[in-house]
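Issue 218. Parser rejects a valid record. Input:
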Amino acid sequence: MAKPDELVFAPLGGVGEIGMNLSIYGLGNRQQRAWMAVDLGVSFGDEEHLPGIDLIMPDISFLEKERKNLMGLVLTHAHEDHFGAIIDLWPKLKCPIYATQFSAALFEAKCAAERNAPKIPVTVVPSGGRVDVGPFNVEFIPVAHSIPEAHALAIHTEAGTVLHTGDWKIDPTPTLGSPTDEKRLRELGEEGVLALIGDSTNAVRDGRSPSEAEVARTIIDLVKSAKGRVAVTTFASNVARIKAVAAAAKAADREVVVVGRAMERVVQVARECGYLDGVQNFRSPEVYGHLPQDKVLALCTGSQGEPRAALARIANDDHPEITLNRGDSVIFSSRTIPGNEKAVGSIINNLVLQGVEIITDRDHLVHVSGHPRRDELRDMIGWVKPQLLIPVHGEALHLNEHAKLARAAGVPRVLVVRNGDLIKLGPGDPGIIGEVPSGRLYKDGTILEDSKSRAVVERRRMAFSGCAFVAIAMTEQGELADDPEVDLVGIPEKNRAGEPFDDLVFDAVVSTIEGLPKARRRDADALGESVRRAVRAVINEHWGKKPPCLVHVLTV
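Output the parser choked on:
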């Protein structure tokens, strides 16, 4: 009798971290499996540790190797940490993509805005609908989140059903879109769920996430009571929040001016998909300066401190159309993502220096998370009754807290895993059965590099300790043809005693060359290495840091 097919799962991103989500499911035996990918997202570079790196993406080398067995990529929703890597990585996979209408439309708009984006077809699946992706029958179950058309995926296979929650919360009064489909989730629980692969972002927070309806009421009150100009910044993808801001502006008899390309793009897609039906038309930035101060509201990108976004330019007073003055207000209707605190703080400080009043979620309920707190996690477990729970979408602390909660809620098996772990879900006892290649790719300008690439490693070192450049011209007899050229970049001009570093390095180069035997002087590689070591040693002696040193030897 043939062994039944084995259902496996592996996270390639989004576990032990928040962002860069990529999960894969496999069905078959150890010799051959059909694979399906869920989401393909990015996280963002940190200038301090990764200078010049714009985006970080999951390593998809395993999927490239399995390309002929990759049945498709299914999207839970259209946040960047779930679909932001597709344009760069899809050409390596060329698999079918499945998404609901809003996600597909936002992706199409993103491709249209990107220079030289490949033509990437997306199959649109109705919300609540089902689609066959090879041997996987995937059901899109509506869940509340901070973007339209977020879905949990019920992945039906002959080995059992898995619920991949994606990002979700329980919001009984969403201002836009469907609430989380409790009825269908309960039905799944009655039918039997093999595994729940669940969002852990807010697993450390007690209670329940407040509703978008409460935020909408707060924003109306704040905008109505404001005296001067008002600017509101939020995540561009949060259409419910955009709708709430529009309602507040209308109640206060203000015009909404949309500032920032990402916001303009989402507004356009939301209107096309019917999510802003009945909402007044918005104005372009050119009219901002012509409207009375108490009749305008600027809806801006830049809630995370992005240096090129609208709010950063306004705070630096270098936006061509939008200015704020003493007595104006800025509402940060967002949460600062960990790692962005410095950038957001800098914007807030610049605005405060201009006399602008700042309103954040520390003062008023102007933002709610799109992720479930502990009581909501318990509800999901109670509805779905999984045999196995695997926490994902969180750092180590979040995963661990979600796992403890699941065990306390009576889930028979709970597994905490890492990116790259290959987990057997069924049939039989679940567990980690192997490992698949995983890692990170860095988008450096227009080039994708792996994490060990020379450019990434060297730039990090240069950011920390500068760089020394030395050019030496030697005769064929092994004598200096001219004085060495020394160029120090990012290195202090003088040491603590006031001696110029240029002179210290120059002397070290000359004395090193003169101290070498003639045979070594005639060997360009040996000479270059000796000089490199000497330069790093002298700079370290006087500064305490060893910069990279590049030595060019020319024989004349």
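Fixed in the parser; the record now loads. The first helix runs from residue 61 to 65.
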